Amino acid sequence: MATIDSIQGATGSGTNAIPHLDVDPFALEFFDDPFPTHARLRDAAPVVYLDKWNVFGVARYAEVHAVLHDPATFCSSRGVGLSDFAKETPWRPPSLILEADPPAHTRTRAVLSRVLSPAVMKQIRDHFAANAEAKIDELLERRSFDAISDLAESYPLSVFPDAMGLKKEGREHLLPYAGLVFNAFGPPNALRQEAIERSAPHQAYVQEQCQRDNLAPGGFGACIHAQVDTGAITAPEAPLLVRSLLSAGIDTTVNGIGAAIYCLARFPDQLARLRQDPALARNAFEEAVRFESPVQTFFRTTTRDVEIGGSRIGEGEKVLMFLASANRDPRRWDNPDQYDITRRTSGHVGFGSGIHMCVGQLVARLEGEVLLTALARKVGGIEITGPVKRRYNNTLRGLESLPVTFTPA
User: Fold this and answer.
1) What is the mean pLDDT of each run of 10 residues along the chain (409 residues)?
2) pLDDT score of 16
3) What is the pLDDT of residue 201?
4) What pLDDT shows up at residue 14?
5) Which contacts qualify for 173-178: CB closer than 8 Å, 24 or more apart?
6) Which of 47, 244, 336, 407 could form a disulfide bond with 97, CB atoms 3.0-4.6 angstroms apart?
7) Is the dihedral of CA 363, 58, 63, 44 positive or negative?
8) Rg (CA), the chain
9) Could you give the CA distance from residue 125 to residue 398 in angstroms, rounded to a whole number?
10) CA–CA separation, 264 vs 368, rounded Å?
11) Do 349 and 326 form a contact (C-beta atoms < 8 A)?
């Protein structure tokens, strides 16, 4: 339960006092149903202070968007998790993309933008679409299955590692590694501790796979290493950029597809609408990302004293952005708690926004679109047929298990 702590008073010296809230956004009970607390955070003030972890929080769309679009004031190089890299050692070498600021970020980001350009997406589209059709056909034959392990995980793992140029052996490390990365952005709770304690084999696999000799010619990974030959990046930077793509290209896609299936199962009118117009597949995926927000939160650190939402925050403070709350802020969206595949979803922050927008977003969007297009043409109904289990992660929102039955169209 979130309460405004009137005894402790207010933080900050801007025009508006900043209320202290007794909220732990990394507690399992919060993960089970974050939406009522999101509403309380938004209603309390544009900026709040979370006593549990001694951080500021922004949960309204306007403030989240403002923080995302001011990287000079709200920096990423001091860590996009609770850890402040200016005060403590990161658990792994920092990402050259996620945990970097301009101008360093601008140079490395340009490399990934070339490797994952819209033109490249066009080249791989037919292959991804054919795999999506085959996956839906296979599941329709089975009728009943787990939509997470057999679809949301299985489909991306059938196309993305090949596109990266990874070897066949060891791919079972990809999901645990990505889960570890996103857990590590959280506080030193059990989720983070256990993930890091179990991480050695996953980290070793990823480190090895990111080396030039282990990546197949023509894949995304080899294309990143080829940028060394042009002088765009250095040889030591290339494996770190491959690593960024491995951690950004799996879990967000898995949870985005899982969210879309979960939404279409719970909102049969929207599935019917998608079946009538399969061209809505891309928007149905975008709306699922807005509605469920696979990436729930990210931190920034202030580089100077700043006023936001009428309140002042000092230099060197951690600011927690509630992306999921912004995506359901009624100040920005009409009927935000309704899944509507005809909604204009542009502007949602489910993939972030600004210069740090998710590097894997084009791949995720391609996979989501071709999969939902195949589903729209072939699947007549989706019924949830067993208990739905949530997967707990400090940053990601997704399911562990979603038993469903597909009815053929």
Assistant:
1) 38 68 97 98 98 97 98 97 94 91 95 94 97 98 98 97 96 94 95 94 95 97 97 96 91 95 98 98 98 98 96 97 98 98 97 92 96 98 98 97 98
2) 67
3) 95
4) 46
5) 173/201, 173/202, 173/205, 173/206, 174/206, 174/246, 174/250, 175/250, 175/251, 175/254, 176/202, 177/202, 177/203, 177/205, 177/206, 177/246, 177/247, 178/246, 178/247, 178/250, 178/251
6) 244
7) positive
8) 21
9) 25
10) 13
11) yes
Report residue 395: phi and psi, to 5°.
Answer: -125, -35
In the numeric block, the tokens 């793992």 are attached to: 157
- Residue 406's identity, in one-letter code, is F
Task: Supply the angle between the helices 174-183 and 251-266 in degrees, to the nearest 10.
Answer: 90
- The whole-angstrom distance between residue 349's C-alpha and the CA centroid of its chain comes to 10
How confident is the model at residue 7, as a pLDDT?
29
Q: What is the model's pLDDT at position 13?
A: 44
> CB neighbours of 279 closer than 8 A, spacing ≥ 6?
none
* Entry field: residues in the chain: 409
Give yes or no for a contact between 71 and 356, defined as CB atoms under 8 angstroms apart.
Answer: yes
Angle between helices 268-276 and 361-378 (to 10 degrees): 90
Q: Are the beta carbons of 274 and 261 closer than 8 angstroms?
A: no
Backbone angles phi and psi of 306, in degrees to 5: -145, 145
The pLDDT value recorded for residue 247 is 85
Domains of the chain: 10-408 (1.10.630.10)
pLDDT of 210 reads 97
CA separation for the pair 368, 129 (Å, rounded)? 10
